[in-house]
Amino acid sequence: MRPLLAYMVITGLGEGIFGTLAAPFVAGVLGGAGDAYGLFLSVQAVGGIAGGLAVAAWPGVTSPRALLGWGTVFFGLADLALFVYPLAWPVLWPALVLIVVAGVPAAAAMAGLTTLAQRSVPDGRRGALFGLLGGAQAATSLLGMALAGVLGDRVGIVATLCLHAGGLFAAGVMILARIRKDPV
């Protein structure tokens, strides 16, 4: 349970950062208009759907911890590529491709997280666990939003978004370290 809680705290912080800076990233860094932001968010869902279908097509092939750990590591790496490529080439279409790519491991990670959470406590405690995990993510998302507002202006949008990507990578590595000690 503790690794899942730590995971939600780390990723919640990053999601708050991303949620706050996604629109300024598309508009300010990529030079996109309002329709570009809508397209950016829409294609993100395409990757999530593709990832969900891929996980569903091969049930049981990968352990839930591997799905969560490796999914989050690859999600973080895809997000890092998404956030830094515009430093050399600030055009929109690669962002659309990369956000789709990022959605695939993100969906795998969510499948792993949900399965691990369901397996980690007895039936009568699942609601409490999901409440704790959701509350931890919501609280740290608020903190991430506040940090994004401060850091986005001080260190820049791209650097702040890289904190989100780095947090994903670190959270995935943390889960993978648990696999060696206690595989599922």
Automatic annotation (TrEMBL):
Subcellular location per the Swiss-Prot or TrEMBL entry: Cell membrane
Pfam families, per database record: MFS_1
Domain Major facilitator superfamily (MFS) profile stretches: 1-184
InterPro entries: MFS, MFS_dom, MFS_trans_sf
Gene3D superfamilies: MFS general substrate transporter like domains
Bilayer topology term: Multi-pass membrane protein
Assigned GO CC terms: plasma membrane
Domain of life: Bacteria
Transmembrane segments: 38-59, 66-85, 91-116, 128-151, 157-177
GO molecular function, one term: transmembrane transporter activity
UniProt keyword terms in alphabetical order: Cell membrane, Membrane, Transmembrane, Transmembrane helix
Primary localization: membrane
PANTHER family: INTEGRAL MEMBRANE EFFLUX PROTEIN-RELATED (PTHR23513), STAPHYLOFERRIN A TRANSPORTER (PTHR23513:SF11)
Protein name according to UniProt: Major facilitator superfamily (MFS) profile domain-containing protein
